[in-house]
Amino acid sequence: MNIGTRKLLDRSFTAVGFTSIMLMALALLAVLVPIITGGIKALYFQGTVEHRTLLFNEFQRGDEAKLAVDAERSEAARKPVYEYLAAFDTELESLPFERKRALESEYHHVRDTLHELLGPLPGDTPPLLLRFQYGVTRWEKAEEELHNLLYMTKWDYSDPTKMATQYFAPRVDEFTGTSLEGLFGYVEEHLEEMLLPQPEFYWGFITDRSLDAHIFGGVWAEIQGTFYLAIGAMLFAFPLGVIAAIYFTEYAKDNYLTSMLRSANSTLAGVPSIVFGLFGLAFFINTMKVSESKSVLAGSLTLAIMILPTIIRAAEEAILSVPKTYREASLGLGATKWRTIMTVILPAALPGIITGGIISLGRAAGETAPIIFTAAVSVGATIGIADVFTEPTPALSWNIYNLASEHEAANEIRHVQYGMVMALISIVLLLNISAILLRARISQKLKG
Amino acid sequence: MHMTAEKTGQVAVDSGNDGATREIFLPPERKQIRDGGKPHVVAKNFSIFYGDFEAVKSVDAEVLSKYVTAIIGPSGCGKSTYLRSINRMNDLIPSFHTSGTLTFDGEDVYGKYTDEVLLRKKIGMVFQKPNPFPKTIFENIAYGPRLHGINDKKALAEIVETSLKKAALWDEVKDRLDRNALGLSGGQQQRLCVARALAVEPEILLLDEPTSALDPKATAKIEDLIEELRGSYTIMIVTHNMQQASRVSDYTMFFYEGVLVEYAPTKQLFTNPRDQMTEDYITGRFS
């Protein structure tokens, strides 16, 4: 091969390598940007007076005097709305039956939407669920609801050869000539005064318990549950894994049994996580009966089994990479094998062992399938440390899935879902960064 | 290297069979050794195997106490294997086994009831590559005494100081005992390893090519150190460097393909070898 071709090949490989790295970076960006922009909305948004009232009532947070002023202002702005409704209620009774029937269902729509916007209307029975006790808490939702109030969604079937097209018709047209006619214009005009939106930094999203299945409130229970499960898994898997790695590298003879154990370990690493989940249910809960039903303990044990192979492998690699000369030096001084392992080999292998451990910790924090049947509940309170043996817990990974698919108001609370994803990613990232720093510190200490 | 040679002051001129003359450096006049010369490491029909391969073939030799014995020979001749079998370092190799007997201080090294951990406490070893632990200088030296149950801070500090002084390293490191040992230069690290071995008060020092990874200046320092320690400890040193063997040792063993070809006082072996093979080797006809 002549020098020209060789250089050309070198250059083209450089180009290919650079391109693939750029693609990877772009993919990472494409994943992270929506998560961050979506997640930030859970923490920072235009909050309405309803949100501030909610925070005050449920968490006793906020400036009471200022809230009273706001409440009075918004009440004053809402008064005409209630008056429109009261007037129309009387008018409706006096209308001829046909006309009344025609208007009644649209009027229900109007009342429902106003309930969504402003909370319970005068004359409504006090709602039981928290989510119906308050109006919209976030301004961007208020704007959507306003649109629902002002327009009816209609479908145009005029061209039978095509699919029907959607269009919006002003709702006010239905009520022309009635006492409700003025309401629509008034609400459109004065919505801001009724809800008094202002930018809010809701740090409570991290530290508050959730209210009414995540409709309001924060995700502390999930964050705490994630920590419980991940740290619990580490408590079991880390010591066990390191001991197993020491056995494999230092004590196991090179025979059939050892190679069987090794390949069993590798196979375990490749088992899908849902299988671990089912195994956890069948073994830890149904057979061993570590708890009556789902519990943090059962979930931790299941996660521990799942991350065990990774920890063993990482610790094994780390121990094997300790120079043989350290071992010789220690044995040569008259140290026993055990002493050599504890005082020379393990300290030197520590950076690698810790890295493997923290990567596993991150994985345990993020896994969903193993905890579905063993530990996770979609709605739950924060549990004390003493309850981990018996109580299940919400956890970020499972609740993200739940909010994305099964939650009855999934569409209403996308911001909570994004916020949870951001919290989970932050936790895992934080763990990885601390692993890197810890490793760097220990390596520095070892290198001198 | 040249400087050390000048210091010894003695140069013998050897005329080989081909008529060319070569210079051989001879040991300087040595200090007298008291109560030495007793058989310390005694091999009787001692062979070492790796699986079926016989790496060292029926050696019969007595290493005398308090003297320096050098082991020379071409690569793969079994000299390191022999040295490492004295403190059972080869036990780490699964296929390793021996026949015949090797006694240290009258105790059978490979005896059925021999505790290799106790044995190694009496034998200090320094390896080819400096191998300090990734700990502080102090902790490196204190490691051995701690194994022996010395935990008193003051006693440890004393041992560290005397060991470092014996290894001629004290003045260079006394202000940074709490620094990591891996920050020292290669030569200093190797002297630290000597100090670490001395800290457990061994009866014998095994040096396995201790200067092969060092520059000439550091090598000279290690050689001076061996001279310093001579007479206090039995020293066995494996070396590739024949000039080094002739400079530092009282006795020399020459191994070739696992066989102990010749074992004689260094002066005699280098000036008047009995065996043709020895002569060919020390005059550089093969290596």
List keywords for this structure.
heterodimer; A: 448 residues; mainly alpha; MetI-like fold; two-stranded antiparallel sheet; B: 287 residues; alpha/beta; Rossmann fold; 12 strands
Task: Write down how many β-strands of chain B occur, each being a DSSP E stretch of 2 or more residues.
Answer: 12
Helix residue percentage of chain A: 55-70%
CATH topology of the largest domain in chain A: MetI-like fold
Low-confidence stretches of chain A: none
Largest sheet of chain A: 2 strands, antiparallel
Radius of gyration of chain B: 19 Å
- How far is the first residue's CA from the last residue's CA of chain A? 47 Å
Strands of the widest sheet of chain A, in order across it, are 1-4
Number of helices of chain A: 16
Low-pLDDT stretches of chain B: 1-9
CATH C-level of the largest domain in chain A: Mainly Alpha
Task: Determine the fraction of residues in helical runs of chain B and give it as a percent range.
Answer: 25-40%
Keywords (chain A): Cell membrane, Membrane, Transmembrane, Transmembrane helix, Transport
GO biological process, one term (chain A): phosphate ion transmembrane transport
Organism (chain A): Prosthecochloris vibrioformis (Chlorobium vibrioforme)
Subcellular location (chain A): Cell membrane
SSE map:
The complex is a heterodimer of chains A (448) and B (287).
Chain A: H1 3-43, E1 44-47, H2 49-59, H3 64-94, H4 97-118, H5 139-150, E2 151-156, E3 165-170, H6 181-195, E4 198-201, H7 204-207, E5 210-211, E6 216-217, H8 220-251, H9 256-269, H10 273-287, H11 296-320, H12 324-332, H13 337-366, H14 369-372, H15 396-405, H16 414-447
Antiparallel strand pairs in A: 1-4, 2-3, 5-6
Helix pairs in contact in A: 1-16, 2-3, 3-4, 3-6, 4-5, 5-6, 8-11, 8-13, 9-11, 10-11, 11-13, 12-13, 13-16, 15-16
Chain B: H1 2-8, E1 11-15, E2 21-25, E3 39-50, E4 53-64, E5 68-72, H2 79-86, E6 96-104, E7 107-108, H3 116-121, E8 123-126, H4 137-147, H5 153-166, H6 170-173, H7 186-198, E9 204-208, H8 216-229, E10 234-238, H9 242-248, E11 251-256, E12 259-265, H10 266-271, H11 276-282
Parallel strand pairs in B: 5-10, 5-11, 8-9, 9-10
Antiparallel strand pairs in B: 1-2, 3-4, 3-6, 6-7, 11-12
Helix pairs in contact in B: 4-5, 4-7, 5-7, 7-8
